[in-house]
Amino acid sequence: MSNINVTRSSMPPFEEYCEEIKELWDSRWLTNNGIKHREFEEKLENILGVPNVTLYTNGHLALENALSVFSFPKGSEVITTPFTFASTTHAISRSGLTPVFCDVNEDDFTINPEKIEALITDKTVAVMPVHVYGTICDVEKIQKIADKYGLKVIYDAAHAFYETKCGKSVAAFGDFSMFSFHATKVFHTIEGGALCYSDDSFEEKLYMMKNFGYKNNCSQLCGGNAKMNEFQAAMGICNLRHIEEEIAKRKNVAGRYRERLGNIPEIQLTPIQEGVVSNYAYFPMVTKGYKYSRDEIAHRLGEQGILARKYFAPATNSFEYYKDLPTSEQNGATPISKILCENVLCLPIYADLSLSDVDRICDIILS
Ligand SMILES: *Cc1c(COP(=O)(O)O)cnc(C)c1O
Question: Rounded to a whole number, what is the largest CA-CA distance in the chain?
Fold first, then answer.
């Protein structure tokens, strides 16, 4: 039996991609806001229902650029959660800002809004919540707190592409939403990312920040290089044509997992959120006193050539680099995140994972 990875990149038909990039051979315009870039950006604005989309070479630099727009004073504090990928926390830190770690909800793993206010100081400038595994944060409560204290809200929506809540695009919440289009995500451009926002005044500065600060042939800001190239945009255009089908297939896989694992009290799954159209990006399970530990399950699956990932582990506030912060895990600041990191396992999920393979995985977990 063949090995099963935790994910498998979706690919458009080979001919479709070749057709899409043909023009690039003729035009020799390979990057810097070319025809594919502009087409892809416009398509995303329409599909996501947001006035502005700015494309990036990856999601991480998109996050850094979102933070740079506000020119926060160095040392300002950004409230975020440690139950995320390194990128979220490092984007804050690399921008000269201080991450302040807020714990997550036990039931849905997103930032606990009840715990945000106690962390606000006179240095707090923003909140960076994560729609982790595609589970949408309590956006209303977060916005209320942000409005009360005059904070910006930048969503790490890397996992939440194409989702809606009560008919509203996930891209429309907060000041910014960042999507990652990395090869391992539900929707990808090989590497890539995007910022979505409604304030038109951000657009020019973002374009300058991702292209060495240039405007009118003159570098006016200390920008870096974070541009998406034409080949990435072409991959995006192709994958976008198949997104509905991709998500429908994932839904089938997730449905089978839920059938098999959903009624075991010692295994916690992510909640099904009312009014949310999910993208089925991940399938995490959390062991809660189950007969096998997370590590035992991962090991048993591994023996059968099945790679499940301990994602996320460890919490970012247990990284050596952050250990001296008052809200580090070492200081006991985020106990729920710590327990989650020790017990969560992401099971394989991708569009063409067969239901018989899902059954095989479940049999190993349950046997
Ligand atoms: C993938 C990911 C990112 C970074 O995206 P890249 O496109 O790989 O740079 C940021 N945050 C989270 C939660 C992610 O999963």
Answer: 66
Query: Ligand 1: distance of its center to the CA of 181 in Å?
Result: 8
Ligand 1 binding pocket mutation candidate from 57, 88, 179 (most atoms within 8 A of CB): 88
Which residue type is seen at 83?
Answer: F
Helix (H) or strand (E) holding 268: strand 267-269
Cα of first residue to Cα of last residue in the chain, in angstroms, is 19
CATH numeric code, 243-366: 3.90.1150.10
- Contact (CB, 8 A) for 100 and 129: no
Asked whether the predicted pLDDT for residue 1 surpasses 70, the reply is: no
pLDDT band at 2 (very low <50, low <70, confident <90, very high): confident
- For the chain, domain boundaries: 14-241, 243-366
The hierarchical CATH code for the domain 14-241 is 3.40.640.10
Residues flanking ligand 1, CB < 6 Å: 58-60, 84-85, 87-88, 130, 156, 158-159, 180, 182, 193
Give this prediction's pTM. Answer: 0.97
Distance 363 CA to ligand 1 centre (A): 31
pLDDT of res. 147: 98
pLDDT tens figures, 314-366: 999 999 999 999 999 999 999 999 999 999 999 999 999 999 999 999 999 99
